[in-house]
Design brief:
- The chain has an eight-stranded parallel beta sheet with strand order 6-5-4-3-2-1-8-7.
- The protein is an alpha/beta fold.
- It has eleven helices and eight strands.
- It has one domain: Phosphoenolpyruvate-binding domains (TIM Barrel, Alpha-Beta Barrel).
């Protein structure tokens, strides 16, 4: 991730067709959101299978830094985990440990889809500790204060900003133009660049220009919008053009 742009998107709708359509669009990875959606673990497994079968990397954003949830989505076949509200090195170490088998971590052993239901465990176990991506979300001012220690934790693949929660942590939710919020983001960028740690950001509006703006600032791990906004934006844009034309 350090040497190239890694562009993905977000899935909040629990139908496999959504994952299939988006994974065929050219994204490098797609993240299934278990934190702010009603997607359950059964649906998540179906989405993971659909994403991976189309040559795309399946990530899951879990709802909490919970080893049980992390273990279950990895067993379902996730190749990357995004963990919310990582505010300290201790939080980061817990997340990494949950993602890796002993001796590098404490992930329990199960025989599920990821291990070909028990028929390919040895081969899977040889590689997954090195291959699984552990992305920690930086979405609180405390995380910015502890950022150097967080990104130094062995096994952390990268970070991604949660801009709304980050601004909310100082009482300014969504007010990205406020100097205090700008300063937090600038500090994040400065520290990551100093330590050659990839900058991550979720660009929520479905406007490619905003992605290009982040790339110019040095961001390389970028989530571009999400399923509902891609769908809704296109519907609204085209209907508005029709309505304007027939006035």
């Amino acid at each position: 991730m350090k040497n190239k742009i890694s562009l993905g998107s977000w899935i909040t709708l629990g139908h496999f067709s959504i994952a299939e359509i988006m994974s065929k669009a050219g994204f490098e990875w797609l993240c299934i959101d278990l934190e702010h959606s009603v997607i359950d673990l059964f649906e998540a497994e179906q989405l993971i299978a659909s994403i991976s079968s189309n040559g795309c990397v399946p990530y899951v954003r879990v709802g909490a830094n919970d080893p049980t949830i992390i273990k279950r989505v990895l067993d379902a076949g996730a190749r990357g985990i995004i963990i919310p509200m990582i505010n300290s090195a201790k939080d980061a170490k817990k997340a990494v440990s949950a993602c890796k088998y002993p001796p590098k971590g404490t992930r329990g052993v199960g025989l599920a889809r990821a291990q070909d239901y028990g028929f390919n465990f040895d081969e899977y176990a040889k590689k997954i500790n090195d291959e699984v991506k552990v992305i920690v979300q930086i979405e609180h001012y405390k995380a910015i204060k502890n950022l150097e220690q967080i990104i130094k934790v062995e096994g952390v693949s990268g970070t991604i900003i949660g801009p709304y929660d980050l601004s909310g942590s100082i009482g300014l939710p969504g007010q990205y133009d406020k100097p205090e919020v700008i300063e937090l983001l600038s500090t994040y960028e400065k520290i990551c660049k100093e330590h050659s740690s990839p900058l991550g950001f979720h660009v929520v509006p479905s406007d490619y220009n905003l992605v290009l703006d982040k790339i110019k600032l040095g961001y390389s791990f970028i989530a571009f919008s999400l399923d509902t906004l891609f769908l809704g934006t296109q519907c609204r844009d085209q209907l508005n053009k029709i309505n304007e034309s027939i006035k």
